UniProtKB/TrEMBL annotation:
Domain PglD N-terminal: 2-78
SUPFAM superfamilies given in the database record: Trimeric LpxA-like enzymes (SSF51161)
Organism: Macrococcus bovicus
Organism superkingdom: Bacteria
UniProt cross-references to InterPro entries, sorted A to Z: Hexapep, PglD_N, Trans_hexapeptide_repeat, Trimer_LpxA-like_sf
Signal sequence interval, chain numbering: none
Pfam families reported in the protein's UniProt record: Hexapep, PglD_N
Protein name: PglD N-terminal domain-containing protein
Amino acid sequence: MNIVIIGRGGFSYVVEEELSKLGSYNVVGYMDASIEVSHIKENRYYLKMFDLDYIKDDIYYFIAIGNIEVRRKIVEQLNIPSNRFITIISRDAYVSSSVEIGNGSYIGPGTIINANTIIGSHTTINTRVTIEHNSKIGDFCLINTSSTLYSHTTIESNSVVKVGSVIVVRQPE
C-alpha cells in the first residue's frame, strides 16, 4: 500500500519506522507546510500542504502531527474520503479482537487496549498506554505516553490526556 505521510516533524519519523516494521506499506512521499514547491525527487513526492495535484488514486495517507487541532483542520481542508486514511497499529501493541478503531488512528508500541473498547478516527494512542475494557475514546484525541485509563472510561473527542495520567471512573452498578 502506497502512503503519503502528512507532517514532517518528530512524530513522522516514529510513524515511518512503524510502517517499515509492518512491512506492507511503502512510503512514497510527504506533505508538509515546510515544502514550498511540490515536486518529485528520487521517486518520492514532496508536497506543499493541501496540494493533491501529483497524487494518484492508489495513494493512502497518514497525518503524523501530534497537535489535535491542526490534525482536525487538515482532515477538513484536504477533503479526502475517510477510507484513504490508514490506521497504524504497532506490532508491539496488544489490541483485543473486539476493539473498534477509526480511520487515521495510531496505536503505539507497548500499548494494551482491552475488550469492547472503541477508539475514534484520527486519534493517537502513544507508547505504553493501557486502556481497559469497555472504554470509549473519541475522534481527534491524543492519549500520551504511559497513561492508564481504567475500565468504562470515556474520553470525549478533541481531548488530550497528559503523559503518565491515570484516569479512574466510577464503575457502573
